Amino acid sequence: MCESAIEARLVREVERIGGLAPKWVSPGNNGVTDRLVILPNGVTVYVETKAPGKPLKPLQRKWAKELTKRGHRHYKIDSVEDIDRFIAEVSGG
Hints:
3 strands, tRNA_endonuc-like_dom_sf, nuclease activity, alpha+beta, hydrolase, Trna Endonuclease, Chain: A, domain 1, hydrolase activity, acting on ester bonds, 3-stranded mixed sheet, VRR-NUC domain-containing protein
């Protein structure tokens, strides 16, 4: 499964639980996560989607570290199983 298919499925699953998953584009800030996931319970998390088995790039790792050290949740998702775990965790299931 390619990255775009994983990303599309993530968006569908987030919308299924009542959330939004807009693409995050931040000019001048290379490496920001692919998606902001805005959940109905007032929580926002950051998600980087990758092709299966692909690691985060150095700038993506830097952003993940910056977000988590400030108390935000950051996820790297590269499989359908990751999506299922993510949805279960953020929806309390």
